[in-house]
Design a protein that fits this description.
This protein is mostly helical and 846 residues long. The chain has five domains: 234 residues, no CATH class; 191 residues, P-loop containing nucleotide triphosphate hydrolases (Rossmann fold), CATH 3.40.50.300; 69 residues; 105 residues, no CATH class; 79 residues, no CATH class. Strands 2-3-4-1-5 form a five-stranded parallel β-sheet, with helices on both faces. The chain is globular and about 95 Å long.
Length: 846
């Protein structure tokens, strides 16, 4: 029957989706079919079900050789399927259709079947993680889905392919071990699933474009019809009027949520969850009293550096999401390497968006349209309390408060205090070091305090499990098996409650090649984290995988960056020579991943977004501290110097000559010539496999003259994508002003280039104070912005530009600037105040 359908006329996408679901069910065993049909008969999955399934995946690891948490890899794809399942029935046939829950069931069944096959599930979960990164999100298409048949078809086509991926994965597991081995040799995992992954990525981009076009068309239509509402309402059926109102409500909801926050709060939670899990606090009386309280309250856990506070917080979030499926749960994990995450406005806005995202769009009609502009913390809290139903339980989970500065903490705790004093039920969970709790405990009441004990029984369990994993995977090799008991005892006694210390010692021990080396390492284990990091640097220098100066530069850029840089962004930044505006791809590091890995275990590369981070915030503190000995001095970084250096990199990058010519559309492109290999191919960071194939092709010829590079690129799928890419451009455009706050004429070689950016003559740069005003108020606006953002260099440059002339500087401007600097104690405010005083004196002398 299925074959007959395929040979007939092309089926509609929704029919193909139903057919794909039917074919997936057909390959299941009888027991699995029963489970699948049970899931299909259930209600559509809720948000809490995403957390529940990922928890089940991580708990079902009895037959795996690793105790890693794979659940976070699956969060994005599960979330996307959950969101789609809530709207798919609009076109499939109403709420009685099983399609919605069937798609969810397919993914859940696939994970259940494959989870116990260790190496295969590792590859499969990584595939789902990559698919999830580009998977269409409800906020991208939700408003337009009911109105756009093209969008409906594209989404059905997309999830039909997702079902096909699941089917292939299950069919592989159903093969005999010999057939699996044969299939792996003849058709490796990437060969089997690579084309489908590429197809999904292409379809996801098309869906986003289609949703954008449909939204613009609908807005234009709405505007035209709104100009003559009477005629419109009389000519439309009541159902169409109702749909128009629903569209308007949805649009208002998404606009308000975007106004609250667009920050990706899931990334930091995923990292924390992958680090492990902890259940130690669930049995404490303070936790039980907090969770069972009938009124708003706070649970604040405290612990020493490296004691596992973040892992505990991630585990609490998971436990609450599963145990209270009807409650509204929001969370935020502050990241030491992401400046945006340390702002009170970001935290409050993100928490509000999460709590409000599940509300019916009609509820947002209570928000005045004029209130949905730029909102401060007080306005967000006010709107949140106005919109939330009072009958709901609201859980707020916040980790990493130690990373925020005092002024941001004051604002954050003020907002949280207002939530506690409201008529709603808020259960707030915080984690920090003991000192922070001592300073702020009076601001959040009523409160339960839970200090994490230094003698933590979970550390012994963790050490035992970690050693077991390393023995099974072969990363720890022993000649005498009894040494494992010595290792366990030494790590348990030396940990002093610090999981982080244990992690670094395990890596050090596993790096030893002999039993003698292991025993010597155990006899001289470092006493604390700084001594641990010293040893890491010494071993790194001894290996000399990467030049120490390269390591220092990487440390400096990562430490100064205002958000984590992706590998290709870091590669571009490393290749910039301050002051040289001619882009030279020969300076780019060929293998940036190897360079980062050569910096020892102090840096890590996030598997999900390929960003480079310090392993822990204590590592960053160590790198920025004064070195204890002369040898490690070459790796330590002075933050003010690193900040200025990154500023010079940003300024130089934005002044690259290529941006004057290449960021324009060209209708005709000349064929790629062999001599363009360096400037046009390597610049775009092609995969090393592609570079190697091109190089091998050149080796087989006498020279490059007869080498058809264009056809070779097409063969590897690159020829159709010859648009140049500049990975570091987005970062440089966003943060060049931040990193140049302390620029000085004569001290930075890029000062002249910096002035060029300020002149608004560089196409890729948009100045935050807007284009040059026609009424002569440019300097006034620049000085206001400089004071508000504490940009000392900009104040000096603007005052120098004004000089002794008062041309264009009015009394009104002087009064306006006085209002800006009033009450500010910063150096920039003082500079502007002194300048205004001089201006006033000159006026009086005239």
């Amino acid at each position: 029957m299925a074959l007959a359908l395929r040979t007939a006329a092309p089926l509609r996408p929704e029919i193909r989706l139903a057919q794909a679901l039917s074919e997936f069910e057909a390959i299941l065993s009888d027991d699995d079919k029963k489970s699948f049909r049970t899931w299909r008969a259930e209600r559509p999955p809720a948000v809490s079900d995403v957390m529940k399934v990922t928890a089940e995946i991580d708990k079902n690891n009895g037959r795996r050789t690793s105790r890693r948490c794979f659940g976070p890899r699956l969060t994005s794809i599960l979330g996307a399927v959950q969101q789609f399942s809530t709207v798919v029935d609009v076109i499939i046939g109403g709420t009685q259709s099983p399609i919605a829950t069937s798609i969810w069931g397919v993914l859940r069944m696939t994970l259940q079947i494959t989870v116990n096959f260790a190496s295969y599930f590792d590859s499969l979960s990584a595939l789902f993680m990559r698919i999830g990164r580009s998977c269409p999100r409800y906020e991208q298409y939700g408003v337009m889905y009911p109105k756009s048949p093209r969008l409906q078809e594209a989404l059905c086509e997309y999830f039909c392919t997702v079902v096909l991926v699941c089917k292939k994965a299950v069919l592989f597991i159903m093969k005999s071990p010999l057939a699996q081995l044969s299939a792996t040799i003849l058709k490796p995992f990437q060969s089997e699933f690579g084309p489908l992954e590429l197809n999904l990525s292409t379809m996801a981009e098309s869906i986003r474009e289609e949703a954008s076009v449909a939204f613009k068309q609908e807005v234009a239509l709405e505007t035209r019809e709104a100009s003559n509402f009477r005629a419109w309402s009389s000519s439309k059926a009541s159902t169409e009027i109702h749909e128009a109102k629903k569209f308007k409500a949805q649009k208002a909801k998404f606009h308000f949520l975007d106004t609250c926050s667009t920050y990706n709060h899931q990334t930091a939670w995923k990292r924390a969850r992958k680090a492990g899990e902890s259940s130690r606090i669930f049995d404490h009386a303070a936790y039980r009293q907090w969770i069972q309280s009938s009124a708003s309250s706070v649970l604040w856990i405290t612990g020493i550096l490296g004691s596992g506070k973040t892992v505990s917080t991630a585990s609490v979030l998971q436990e609450i999401s599963i145990s209270f499926p009807n409650a509204l749960v929001c969370y935020f994990f502050c990241s030491h390497d992401d400046a945006e995450s340390l702002k009170a406005r970001t935290i409050v806005g993100s928490l509000a968006r999460q709590l409000l995202s599940l509300l019916d769009p009609a509820a947002f009609g209570r928000i005045d349209a004029s209130e949905s502009g730029a909102l401060d913390n007080d306005e967000i809290v006010s709107c949140l309390l106005n919109l939330l139903p009072q009958s709901e339980q609201n859980f707020v989970i916040i980790d990493g408060l130690d990373e925020c500065i005092e002024t941001e903490l004051d604002q954050l705790f003020d907002s949280l205090g207002k939530l506690l004093k409201s008529h709603h039920r808020f259960y707030i969970f915080c984690s920090s070091c003991p000192d922070l709790h001592t300073r702020y405990r009076a601001t959040l009441q009523p409160q339960y305090h839970l200090p994490l004990p230094v003698q933590n029984p979970e550390i012994a369990q963790y050490i035992n499990g970690a050693l077991e994993d390393r023995l099974k995977t072969g990363s720890l090799c022993l000649g005498d098996p009894t040494i494992i008991l010595t290792i366990r005892q030494a790590l348990t006694e030396g940990s002093h409650g610090m999981f982080l210390w244990v992690v670094f010692q395990l890596e050090s021990i596993c790096a030893e090649l002999t039993d003698e080396g292991i025993l010597q390492a155990l006899q001289s284990l470092p006493k604390d984290l700084p001594e641990t990091f010293d040893r890491v640097l010494r071993k790194m220098a001894a290996k000399r995988t990467v030049n120490p100066s390269t390591c220092h530069k990487i440390f400096a850029i990562v430490a100064a960056a205002q958000r984590p840089l992706a590998l290709d962004e870091l590669r571009e930044a490393m290749g910039v020579v301050p002051g040289e505006t001619e882009r030279d791809s020969r300076r780019l590091i060929n293998d940036i991943r190897t360079a980062v890995n050569g910096c020892g275990s102090l840096l890590l590369i996030d598997e999900e977004d390929s960003t480079v981070r310090f392993t822990h915030h204590s590592v960053k503190q160590y790198i920025l501290s004064s070195p204890q000995d002369g040898f490690t001095r070459q790796f330590h970084v002075k933050l003010p110097e690193a900040d200025l250096s990154l500023g010079e990199i940003c300024v130089t990058y934005l002044n690259f000559n290529v941006f004057d010519t290449t960021l324009t559309k060209t209708s005709n492109r000349a064929p790629l010539q062999p001599h363009d290999i360096t400037t046009s191919i390597v610049e775009r960071t092609l995969p090393w496999t592609v570079i190697s194939k091109i190089a091998l092709g050149l080796l087989k010829r006498e020279g490059v003259g007869d080498f058809d590079l264009e056809s070779r690129l097409r063969a590897v799928g690159i020829g159709e994508r010859r648009q140049e890419s500049y990975p570091f451009l987005a970062y440089a455009k966003t943060f060049w002003l931040f990193h140049t706050r302390k620029f000085e004429r004569g001290r930075q070689v890029t000062y002249g280039l910096w002035l060029r950016l300020l002149s608004n003559s560089v196409k890729v740069v948009m100045l935050p104070w807007g284009p040059k005003p026609s009424d002569g108020k440019e300097e006034e606006e620049v000085l206001k912005w400089a004071v508000e953002n504490e940009h000392e260099a900009l104040v000096h440059a603007t005052i120098s530009k004004l000089g002794t002339s008062n041309a264009g500087f009015t009394y009104e401007a002087l009064q306006s600037l006085l209002g800006v600097v009033e009450g500010r104690a910063s150096s920039t405010a003082q500079l502007v105040l002194e300048f205004l005083f001089e201006v006033r004196v000159r006026w009086e002398e005239v």
